């Protein structure tokens, strides 16, 4: 999959575990900032169904992040693959539970701000896990919104982005797309 600051490839570790390898583009300032933010978010939020960062390399461009599991977009957009309805429903429920955890279950509210199929990883049992926290914002639970510059993937961005005010509903809108 292709993202705003990188490309994701399917890989395999020597243990035969399937991983997603995200290569962050050629040392741009924004790419470096996103990479560091993503490592920080994933390192500070531990949950069974949030993506596990298996490894990363920050030494020289291109920088890489290595995640466990494969990508949902490979199933959605592939012409030769089909997901049964029960599996689709399970994935939807997995993601909504993960979003509820980010929005209400953490010590602070986490706004992901880039929910899309390329940022949903699937394990071997088709359990969905949220990935790519590079655009995320952490806010106090009593706050209803945050004002920020527009980031993310066009087509998945909520109309609230036009006013630079985003809430947890921004993630829900993006997931609904």
Strand order, main sheet: write it out.
1-2-4-3
Gross geometry: globular
Q: Do you know the CATH topology?
A: Transferase(Phosphotransferase), domain 1
- How much of the sequence lies in strands comes to 15-25%
Largest sheet: 4 strands, antiparallel
- Please report the number of helical segments: 4
Total domains: 1
Structural class: alpha+beta
Helix content: 25-40%
The averaged pLDDT comes out at: 81
Q: What is the distance, rounded to the nearest whole angstrom, between the alpha carbons of the first and last residues?
A: 17 Å
Low-confidence stretches: none
Total number of strands = 11
Q: What CATH architecture label applies?
A: Orthogonal Bundle
Assign the CATH superfamily.
Answer: Transferase(Phosphotransferase) domain 1
Which sequence of SSEs, written as H and E, runs from N to C?
Answer: EEHEEEHHEEEEEEH
Report Rg: 16 Å
Summarize the structure.
By secondary structure, the chain is of the alpha+beta class. 28% of the residues lie in helices and 24% in strands. A 4-stranded antiparallel β-sheet has the order 1-2-4-3, with helices on one face.
Tags for this entry?
single chain; about 180 residues; alpha+beta; Transferase(Phosphotransferase), domain 1; about 25% strand; globular
Task: Please give a structural write-up.
- Helix 3 packs antiparallel against helix 4.
- This protein starts with 5 loop residues before the first strand and ends with a helix.
- A four-stranded antiparallel beta sheet has the order 1-2-4-3, with helices on one face. A three-stranded antiparallel beta sheet has the order 5-7-8. The chain has a two-stranded antiparallel sheet with strand order 6-9.
- The chain has 177 residues and is α+β, with helices and mostly antiparallel strands.
- The protein has helices at 29-44, 73-76, 85-105, 168-176; strands at 6-12, 18-24, 53-57, 63-68, 70-71, 109-111, 120-122, 128-130, 137-139, 146-147, 165-166.
- It has four helices and eleven strands, in the order E-E-H-E-E-E-H-H-E-E-E-E-E-E-H.
- One of its GO terms (molecular function) is ATP binding.
- InterPro entries: G-type_lectin_kinases/EP1-like (IPR051343), Kinase-like_dom_sf (IPR011009), Prot_kinase_dom (IPR000719), Ser/Thr_kinase_AS (IPR008271).
- Its EC number is 2.7.11.1.
- Keywords: ATP-binding, Kinase, Nucleotide-binding, Serine/threonine-protein kinase, Signal, Transferase.
